[in-house]
Design a protein that fits this description.
Distance between the termini: 55 Å
CATH topology of the largest domain: Rossmann fold
Strand order of the largest sheet: 9-8-7-10-11-13-12
CATH superfamily of the largest domain: Vaccinia Virus protein VP39
CATH architecture of the largest domain: 3-Layer(aba) Sandwich
Structural class: alpha/beta
Largest sheet: 7 strands, mixed
Radius of gyration: 21 Å
Number of helices: 6
Bound molecules: S-adenosylmethionine
Length: about 250
């Protein structure tokens, strides 16, 4: 049942709205009004006139609710990343940089513990406030620190993800703080960055893969089932590898 304070995904035709259930609130779209008091104690997944009301998922929260000041990692990439990093409830994951916290939210949902590093205070605060607003990430340790300067003693991570402009200066340290065979991923927007990384990674990491994920939405009209007219052509390249013992 819906209750006060729930985060809702409200759909109206092809529009999506993320709202908090405040019984005094309402949503006006075109000439229709959805009064939130009507939703209280009603079953989740409700159709009210042209409105459809659901409990918000993590994807809804990240895409519609997270405040962003950096480019974020989108769910199409984030869940594949979590899969490739072998994340499970008993794993400790390392991430830098935190940015707006979009990938971190996915990692935290699946991992035992996430340690995330961000060097810019404004972004560090933004990511923390995104988590607080939606009650996420009790298993996340946020570090306001340059990962390169961070003192990490006798801590070994099961896997790591790196989303910074130039990952090459971090490779030695990354290698040092990971368990043997640990999976690592990098997100890089341009081919030049990928080539640079490939030229520098071989001594430390093996099992290298480069992948790009395309995501094409379809119109959901049964009589005219076909792809949407526009799609995002490129977000970023993903590079995955594993720590080689040396
Ligand atoms: C593109 S954003 C990351 C976005 C994030 N993956 C998300 O999904 O929201 C890259 C971040 O890396 C941070 N960064 C750059 N160099 C860093 C360093 N040496 N240590 C920690 N964070 C760093 C930047 O300040 C920036 O916020």
């Amino acid at each position: 049942m819906f209750k006060e304070g729930d985060w809702l995904l409200i759909r109206y035709e092809d529009k999506k709205y993320l709202r908090r259930l405040d019984s005094k609130g309402s949503l006006n779209v075109k000439k229709d009004i959805l009064k939130f008091s009507f939703l209280l104690n009603k079953p989740e997944g409700l159709r009210v006139g042209k409105f459809e009301v659901f409990k918000a998922t993590l994807e809804d929260i990240i895409l519609l609710g997270f405040r962003r000041k950096t480019q974020i990692i989108y769910p199409k990439d984030a869940f594949y990343i979590a899969f490739k990093l072998g994340i499970r409830k008993n794993t400790r994951v390392l991430e830098f940089g935190t940015g707006s916290g979009a990938l971190c939210a996915v990692l935290s949902e699946l991992a035992g513990e996430v340690h995330t590093y961000e060097v810019v205070e404004d972004f560090f605060k933004l990511a923390k406030s995104n988590f607080e607003r939606f009650g996420l990430g009790k298993n996340v340790v946020f570090h306001l620190e340059d990962f390169l300067k961070a003192e990490i003693k006798n801590e070994f991570y099961d896997s790591a993800f790196v989303d910074v402009k130039d990952p090459i200066p971090f490779l030695d340290k990354l290698h040092r703080v990971l368990k043997n065979s640990a999976p690592v991923g990098f997100l890089l927007p341009t081919t030049n960055q990928v080539v640079d990384l490939l030229s520098n990674i071989k001594g430390l990491f093996g099992g290298i893969e480069v992948v790009e994920i395309f995501h094409r939405y379809y119109k959901t009209v049964p009589e005219r089932f076909r792809p949407e007219d526009t799609m995002t052509a490129h977000t970023a390249y993903l590079v995955f590898c594993r720590k080689i013992y040396n």
